[in-house]
Amino acid sequence: MKTRLSIVLLSLLTFSLTSCFDDDGNYTYHDVDEITISGIQESYTNISYSGEVLEIDPVVESNYTDLKYEWSIWEPSKEFGSSGNRTDDTYASEVIGTEKKLTYPVECPIGRYTIKLKVYSESTGYFATASTRFDVGSEFTRGFYILKETADGNTDFDLYVNEDTPIKENILTLTGQETLKGKPLFISNVASHGYLDEAGDYQGAHTICVTTEEGDLGFYDTNSMLKVHDRSDVLNGGMAADEKPYTAFSFGASNFFLSSKGTYMSYVYAMMPTSGTFQMHGTGTNGGSQFVCSDGSYNVFFWDEQNQCVNVSENIQFGQVFGTYDNNGFSTEGLTCLSCGSNLAVNNAYFILEGADGKRYLHEVSMSGTDGYFKATRHMELEPGSKLANATEFAVNELTASYMYFVYNNQVYVYNLTNYTEEDTPLTLEGIPSDETITYLSYQWQNFNGDADYNFTHLVVGTQKGDAYRLYMYDLEIGRPSKLVRKIEGNGNMKMCTYTTSVDFNYNRGDQSSLPN
Asked: 33, 66, 214, 250 - which has most CB atoms within 10 Å?
């Protein structure tokens, strides 16, 4: 059933009440009593199409004996139309209950909704309302996806939602799909991606992108966990036989796909619905890698493995409109990349590079374009005996401190990117036993305006002990781990993790998250 809600009605109601109290004409008068509503939470979350039922039992207080109830639901994203501007004073909602207690079988499309209860006196028309947020997801729409190697040397992944929900292990196997061939390389999420459904219609979704060292590739819709893209259709005409996929992600108005042939791009689905094929070739180069970082605004910096240099692309015109990369006289020929990250406080990108002779370098790039160039500002050989030169894992604090974190001798240290010195004392990390080997380090964050309850900034430390892995996630204060807020345990040889949200990505609101690392 559809009902029309209108601001005009509120205006008429106000006018009627005012007239009733001020006019001395021959009318029938009613005393107006209060109606108060309480006992409704700020938000509710359920999984759709799984048999779950949303129940809300409000407390309603009033002296009226003829109260009626009306529960309505609508999507706020559609309240103002696709343009985001109201063209009239009405919008459509659906009535889902007429009893005091709402009992609603959750069988609606995945998304974010508003539910409103209207309680009114049938005799007087006097009413009160209360609203709540309703998040509807699938069992796969939100959480940390954990990439891992299977016992037979192939690739699968797990999903951690929260401490009250058992971890879902081996998602591909669980959903009846084949694991990806080869050892795991990278996992990432594309926050606003398109694909063609069975009817040939465009659909938008969050997708998880998984790549392997052997070049296998899969994009999985987090609503259904069905594979929606692979090597055959991720590019026009498919990927070349000798082309290796690295990673894909959303940044600003664009989706990026990096392979050994270069950087491919398309606008995010929320801006321009498409089949999800990456259409445009960015930067004009013929190389890429999984090592990416950004300036937080327009530009993505990445290591070009084939050309052995840093390169840049932007998310507006799929090229280098803000500047091209300049190695500034430094040579990176013959080097490979071990890690990269950006620090927005000083607007620099940092790459840890290694030569065939084992020498390591800190390669610093200014992300502030000057005269049409992004220039390398430092190429410093690391002291061979230093801890950083012998580290096994790296992560850069992007938001709050000029720090690079690194793992040395199974402990996490800080390298100060302001004065280029490493600290002597390791960080104190709550909860990690000494018999677990640290194999993963990452700085991850999310800042979605429409998902404030779930936003976070974490230093993520991954460990391995035999066939068991653990992920420890810490809140930070002034760049230092302050509190262990999550501990995730699973089985398999863990490679890395990435977070995805169930909330629609909106680049116009400035929604951002860390790039995969």
From this structure: 250
pLDDT at 83 over 50: no
CB count in 10 Å sphere of residue 21 = 9
Q: Is residue 55 a contact partner of residue 102, using CB atoms and an 8 Å limit?
A: yes
Q: What tokens does 153 get?
A: 């040397």
Q: Give me the residues paired with residue 229 across strands.
A: 219
Integer Cα distance of 170 and 157 in angstroms: 5
Q: Containing H/E element for 17?
A: helix 7-22
Contact (Cβ atoms closer than 8 angstroms) between residue 102 and residue 71: yes
Instruction: Specify the pairing of strand 348-354 against strand 360-366.
Output: antiparallel
Q: How many residues does the chain have?
A: 517
Alpha carbon 372 to its chain's center: 31
| Separation CA 234–CA 18 (nearest Å) | 63
Structure tokens at 2: 């559809």
Residues 6+ apart with CB under 8 A from 139: 47, 50, 161, 168
**Cα(310)–Cα(327) distance, integer angstroms:** 8
Within 8 A by CB and 6+ apart from 292, the residues are: 247, 249, 256, 258, 300, 301, 302, 340, 515, 516, 517
Nearest to 310 by CA among 257, 367, 359: 367
Q: Is the pLDDT of residue 271 over 60?
A: yes
* CA-closest candidate to residue 106, choices 130, 142, 135: 135
- CA dist 517 to 60, 118, 183, 396, 474, Å? 50, 47, 17, 10, 16
Helices and strands counted in the chain (H then E): 2, 38
Q: Where are the beta strands (DSSP E) in 334-451?
A: 336-343, 348-354, 360-366, 373-381, 393-396, 403-408, 411-416, 421-422, 437-447
Sketch the domain layout of the chain as residue ranges.
2-137, 143-513
Which pLDDT tens digit goes with each residue over 59-79? 999 999 999 999 999 987 666
Q: In CATH, which of 3.40.50.880, 2.30.30.700, 3.90.1150.10, 2.60.40.10 is domain 2-137? A: 2.60.40.10
Please measure the distance between the N-terminal and C-terminal CA atoms of the chain and give it in whole angstroms. 47
Q: Which CATH architecture has domain 143-513?
A: 7 Propeller (2.130)
Strands (E) in 411-479, as ranges, are: 411-416, 421-422, 437-447, 456-465, 468-477
Residue 93: what are its φ and ψ, rounded to 5°? -135, 170
Distance CA 199, CA 258 (A): 29
Among 499, 508, 509, 503, which residue's Cα sits nearest to residue 188? 499
| pLDDT digits 0-9 by tens, 231-268 | 999 999 999 999 999 999 999 889 999 999 999 999 88
DSSP string, 188-251: EEEEEEEEE-TTS-EEEEEEEEEEETT--EEEEETTT--EEE-TTTSBTT---TT--EEEEEEE
- Cβ neighbours of 446 (radius 10 Å): 19
CA angle 454, 458, 461 (to 5 degrees): 130
Nearest-angstrom CA–CA distance, 488 and 498 = 13
Count of C-beta atoms within a 10 Å radius of residue 33: 11
